[in-house]
Structure formats: structure tokens, C-alpha cells
Amino acid sequence: MAHNHNMPTGDGLSASVPSYRFVPTATAVTAGRPGTIRFQIVGSDGTPVTTFADDQTKQMHFYVVRSDLTGFQHVHPSMAADGTWSASLAALPPGSYRMYASFIAASGDKQTALMLGEPFTVAGAVTPVPLPAVASTAHVDGYTLTFAGHTVTGLAGNLTLTVTKDGKPVTDLQPYLESYAHVSAVHAGDLAFAHLHPDGEVNGDHGGPTLSLNTTFGKTGDWRLFVQFQTGGVLHTAAVTLNVT
Predict the structure, then answer these.
(1) CB 112 within 8 A of CB 53
(2) From CA 148, how far away is CA 179, in angstroms rounded?
(3) Cα–Cα distance between 14 and 221 in angstroms, integer?
(4) Is the pTM of this model over 0.85?
């Protein structure tokens, strides 16, 4: 199965475009407890949108990240008949966050892929976490992810990602959202969002060890990459800091 993704327009720093608006309806999240954020995608006529196309097997991808680039979550909300989406979140520590809705709105034969976002706050005493230094490797659950390549702002680029465990190449990556890895990138400072998408075909539970990632970064500086991949039915999330010149 070929990896096919309709790249969204936008970096999540705006809640609206001329035809669509991201409207949170419930954002009260209590620190340290699982919570739910509810929202609608509203059309230019003020009516909630209820028709969406699948994007990597899901009709809505919802992300949150804290301003210090911690607390990353990527979930897939459910939609009620009135167009209200409910995103269930694991417990979050206090802080300032940004939430992002990534979707493909469908209207007749027209499809519009968008990334919209809004800030929200989890009340309480905040303990900031310094951004980890730029690195070429990330570690999670006994796996080591190694990145190679060079990226330049505003230009299409390519990174390679190699997955190993105990020094041995990993070749049993399973498909997750029509790919062997889902990579999200958030810019330090303004929290602009970017997607990195692996090339190649998905064919069974034997992906890896090396994946090729298409990259387009709109800003220079440090980006925090969140890499999600699946083995043995378990989803792993690793993070690494990348500098874009």
C-alpha cells in the first residue's frame, strides 16, 4: 500500500482561513487529570462542518503541545451529529499549550486539507523544561532512532531515519496511519507545526530499519520532532531536537 497524504495548508498558528474556522467549545482541562477538549470546524456561513474525508485513515488528527515543547499528544477525536468533536487527552501538567486540528473538509467534489490551531491554558504552577540540545539520535523503549541529512528553510529536503534496538537493525515496524512512522515537528518559540512524511510503500509488518522523510520547514531555528512508530502492537513516541538553517 503506497503512503498517500494530502498535505494540509497552514502551520497551526491561525484558527481560521477564509472558508473555515476552528472553534473550541470546551477547553477547561484540570492539571494532572485526563480531560476532554471539544471543538467544531465552522464554515464561512457559521454552520458547523460535518463532512470530512479520511486523512491517513482518520477524519481528524488533534495535537497538543506545551509552550516548552513538552506534553505532546496526538489523538483522534470522535464527532457528534452536530459537528462537535471530542478529543480525549491524557493528564497534562500546568502550562500554556497550543492545540491543532488537522483535517480534510469535504464539500461536494472539493476537498480542503487544513491545519488550524488555538492556544489554551492548564491552570497551576508551571515548571518549565529546557529544550533538549540539538541531537542526531533519540531513544525510547529500548529503541534508538538516528537521523541524518541536512535541511534548509523553505526548501524541500530529505532526512533519513534509522531504527535500531540493542545495536541491531529493526525490520518489524508495523503500519501506523498508513506509514511506518508518523513524524510531527513543532517550532521552538511560536509553536508552528510541520509534518514530515516517509517515502515508500507500506507492505506488512516488516518496515525499517531506514526510512526516508520528506521535509519542508518554513522557519529557521530549533524544531522538536515527535516520531511515532509501532512494533508488536505497541505505539512508541520518541522526541529529538533538530536545527534548521
Answers:
(1) no
(2) 19
(3) 20
(4) yes
Residues in the chain, pLDDT under 50: 1-4
The pLDDT of residue 2 is 40
Would you give the end-to-end CA distance of the chain in angstroms?
A: 34
Residue at 229: amino acid letter: F
Give burial (CB, 10 Å; 0-12/13-18/19+) of 3: middle
- pLDDT at residue 3, as a whole number: 43
User: Does the CA dihedral 213-171-242-12 come out positive or negative?
Assistant: positive
DSSP secondary structure code for residue 130 in this structure: P
In angstroms, rounded to a whole number, what is the distance separating the alpha carbons of residues 3 and 37? 30
- Rounded distance between C-alpha atoms, residue 102 and residue 25, angstroms: 17
Q: In one letter, which amino acid is 181?
A: A
The answer to whether 49 and 101 are in contact (CB under 8 A) is: no
Phi, psi angle pair for 153, to nearest 5°: -55, 135
**Residue 75 to residue 89: CA distance in whole angstroms:** 8
The identity of residue 144, as a single letter, is T
- How far apart CA 89 and CA 33 sit, in angstroms, is 9
- Max CA separation in the chain (angstroms): 56
- According to DSSP, residue 76 is labeled -
Domains, the chain: 16-122 (2.60.40.10), 137-244 (2.60.40.1930)
What is the CA 53 to chain-centroid distance, rounded? 18
The stretches of the chain forming alpha helices (DSSP H) are none
